Amino acid sequence: MNIKFNNKVVQITGAGSGFGRLAALEFSKLGARLVLSDVNEAGLDETMKQLGDGGDRTLALLCDVSKEDQVEKMTKAGIAHFGSLDIAINNAGVAHNMARMAEASLKEFDFVMAVNVRGVFLSMQQELRQMNKQGHGVILNVASVAGLIGAPLAGAYTASKHAVIGLTKAAALEYARKNIRINAICPAFCYTPMVDQLIGGEGGRKREQDMAHVIPMGRLGSAEEIVNGMIWLCSDQNSFTTGQALAFDGGLTTA
């Protein structure tokens, strides 16, 4: 398939690293104009540096997706700058220290839910208002296989990603006849900064091997494999898929 996004406006949250940065680079190569946001200014600056377009086709904005006013300001700025919002990738997310449920930190739980769930909810509200007004749009929420199955020692993260899938399905039904497609992508362990933190330091190699062992394909995924999935899910070639939570997981959720 010859997928192009010529002059389509693509908004990506969490664009300062990982899937978000790579998605920005790849969508740009395919002709998209970009509205990028992140809470990490240094990471966002590095993404812009790697894009190397001088900002002509890219608008970069600091945004904490858990804050309603910041999400509204970011989305409206992109629309004012480019005139529309064709595709939105709600990628911003955080993890937490691994712990059994009884020992888990309430502060960490609240933080994860604020970013991963409230952030997606607030982003979708702004995106859907614009897409409904213009009569078309695509939204892709970055969930996780933890949203499809249980992830021991990651209760808050698991709960947050189940919630992202729930929001995806509810909104997809609400807007199916409005020419707005809404899906979620559910990656398993992939080489991203979030996973790098888990496998870094003492015992990291063993943790990496343990992660690979539970995946039927016997390895972790690459960020490129996930972003390729994002590109297809957001493309016009994928015009009859909505309300789905698609696993990109090396077979992990097959059993």
Give structural notes.
This protein has 255 residues and is α/β, with parallel strands linked by helices. The protein has one domain (9-190, 222-248): Rossmann fold. It has 8 helices and 7 strands. The protein has helices at 18-29, 41-51, 68-82, 106-134, 155-175, 193-199, 204-214, 223-234; strands spanning 9-12, 33-38, 58-62, 87-90, 137-142, 180-187, 245-248. It has a 7-stranded parallel β-sheet, with helices on both faces. The longest helix is centred in the middle third of the chain and has 29 residues, at 106-134. The protein is globular and about 50 Å long. The mean pLDDT is 94.
Helix content: 40-55%
- According to DSSP, the number of beta strands is 7
**What fold name goes in the CATH topology slot?**
Rossmann fold
- Fourth CATH level, the homologous superfamily: NAD(P)-binding Rossmann-like Domain
The N- to C-terminal Cα distance equals 30 Å
- The count of helical stretches stands at 8
Low-confidence stretches: none
Form type: globular
Strands of the largest sheet, in order across it? 3-2-1-4-5-6-7
List the helices and strands and how they pair.
Elements: E1 9-12, H1 18-29, E2 33-38, H2 41-51, E3 58-62, H3 68-82, E4 87-90, H4 106-134, E5 137-142, H5 155-175, E6 180-187, H6 193-199, H7 204-214, H8 223-234, E7 245-248
Parallel strand pairs: 1-2, 1-4, 2-3, 4-5, 5-6, 6-7
Helix pairs in contact: 1-2, 1-8, 3-4, 4-5
